Amino acid sequence: MYFFDPMYFLIIAPALLLAFIAQMWLKSTYASAMKKPAPLSGAAAARHILDSAGLYDVSIEQIPGHLSDHYDPGAKVLRLSPDVYQSRSLGAVGIAAHEAGHAIQDAKHYAPLVLRNLAVPTASFGSGASWILLLLGMVFNFKFLMLAGIVLFGCVVVFQLINLPVEFDASARAKRVLVDLNIVPQDDMPAVRNMLYAAALTYVAATLQAVLTLLYYVMIYASRRD
């Protein structure tokens, strides 16, 4: 299996390098943005953005964890980590605005978000079951099991590809609304932009790794004899 195959790591090396660069950039820009003051806390900024969009029914909750921030479309809840919820910093309002952007996407039935939400169950199942089918297919030389595993992992790749425009659009909305609502002065926006660009790069790296992993699976399948 690819866990022990040097060829796998050779194939995904570009994605691993990109992920490392993205994580280092995100860590640096996040730390820098969290040190720069903002007029509102992350929670207050998110509430202002949601209310300005007419989303009074979307609640905001504080949850434990570091960078565990996310929007739950099923519960209509924006959940923020303690640092983001409480901090009056550019980093906090930037992340909060990004998550509020997902809530606005949901309210406007943004097509890629709708597709992503529909794909979540299949992608979740595929990420766990695909390698099991591939392993069984390789051990017993059942190419139909390997093909089934490839198809399932293909669903994961499709999910990752759909997720990219969702995340990019949420960041674009965040940058726009922070200025439009005077939450962040224009002169302070570079710190927010850099942090959101770094976060976006982590999604690109994850997608690239999924695509290259799928390529590896296809190569293994093609090399097997019936």
TrEMBL record:
The keyword Membrane applies. The keyword 4Fe-4S does not apply. The chain crosses the membrane at residues 6-26, 118-138, 144-166, 196-219. Keywords: Membrane, Transmembrane, Transmembrane helix. It comes from the Bacteria. InterPro entries: Zn_peptidase_2. PANTHER family: MEMBRANE PROTEASE YUGP-RELATED. This is Putative neutral zinc metallopeptidase. It comes from Blastopirellula retiformator.
